Amino acid sequence: MIEVVGIRFKKAGKIYHFDPDGLKIEKGDFAIVETARGVEYGDVVLGNTFIEDEKIVSPLKKVLRVATEEDKNTHAENKKTEVEAFTICLEKIEKHALDMKLIDVELTFDHNKIIFYFTSDGRVDFRELVKDLAAVFKTRIELRQIGVRDEAKMQNGIGICGRPLCCSTFLGDFNPVSIKMAKEQNLSLNPTKISGVCGRLMCCLKYEEDVYEELNKTLPNVGDIIETPLGVGEILSTTVLTQTVKAAVRKNVNDPPTIDYFKVEDIKVIKTKKQKKVEEIPVGLEELLGD
Predict the structure, then answer these.
(1) What local confidence, expressed as pLDDT, does residue 280 receive?
(2) This model's pTM is above 0.85
(3) By three-state DSSP, how is residue 276 classified?
């Protein structure tokens, strides 16, 4: 076990662990730390705590100090400089007629580097832009191209649910999301209904995926032949969360079918959809199927 504190540098950003170096630091404090890109000012979201060594990414850097009033004033001034830098960079982009969209600007606490985040449909030759910016700010300049998901996270917005975007409010990392998740949750596969403002599949498809995977294990498939308390029938549709099926049932072979709903525990699958298809294969074609 090793003692650490958790520090976040952006709202809803990733939490990084640091060695408190004997300092007592509480959640809600601000701290000055040494990072890979220089000295940074961060928000403490996890006070002194012990975690397993294997969860630590080495080397573990130390907290330099708890932020003082002077540090907080410096951070506030840096935020003003970032706004000015954003405006200046927009002017330079227009001057050089570059096909890029400026998204955000970050200035490290020690003024060692200014990072400009942008999006573009292709590669951008921004060498002249960097020279102009370096001449204005007299420090290291980094232009970093980001994707549409990161753009949405930085700019924030309102999702189709009517709430602020998850990525901008509490998601530290982006989880992989696939169309398979939408299928398992019986959602419409219309891209406009399952895509976020970034144009990618909504992150919230991941939230209940584990539950749907578990519930789908006990749910029969549409087209299966089942035995019910009312007779034999064929499944027309299923509802995952309520664990019910809609089926067309005949009490006797010659009776007209009736539509009814049944709980999964009240039915028994007597022939799956796959078995039905095999039985429908014309005689003489079995050898084409192999074993």
Answers:
(1) 56
(2) no
(3) helix
Over the stretch 132-166, which tens digit does the pLDDT of each residue have?
Answer: 999 999 999 999 999 999 999 999 899 989 999 99
pLDDT (mean) for 39-54: 90
- The confidence score (pLDDT) of residue 281 equals 47
Count of helices and strands (H, E) across the chain: 8, 13
59/195 Cα distance (integer angstroms): 39
What strand order describes the sheet that includes 15-18?
A: 15-18, 2-8, 38-51, 30-35, 63-66
For the cut 50, the answer to whether the pLDDT of residue 124 exceeds it is: yes
User: What is the rounded CA–CA span in Å between residue 259 and residue 249?
Assistant: 6
d(CA 242, CA 213): 14
Residue 200, Cβ density class (10 Å: 0-12 exposed, 13-18 middle, ≥19 buried): middle
DSSP 45: E
Our CA angle for 2, 171, 157, nearest 5°, is: 150
Q: In this structure, are residues 53 and 2 in contact, taking their beta carbons and an 8 Å threshold?
A: yes
- In this structure, what are the phi and psi dihedrals at residue 209, rounded to the nearest 5 degrees? -60, -40
Residue 19: what residue type? Answer: D
Question: What strands, in cross-sheet order, belong to the sheet with 258-263?
Answer: 258-263, 244-250, 231-239, 225-228, 268-271
User: If DSSP codes are grouped into helix, strand and coil, which group holds residue 291?
Assistant: coil
Q: How many CB atoms lie within 10 A of CB 4?
A: 21
Q: Is the dihedral of CA 65, 68, 70, 75 positive or negative?
A: positive
Contact call for residues 16 and 31 (beta carbons, < 8 A): no
Question: What are the DSSP E strand ranges found in the chain?
Answer: 2-8, 15-18, 30-35, 38-51, 63-66, 101-107, 113-119, 140-145, 225-228, 231-239, 244-250, 258-263, 268-271
Is a pLDDT exceeding 50 seen at residue 220? Answer: yes
Q: Among residues of the chain, what percentage have pLDDT more than 70?
A: 94
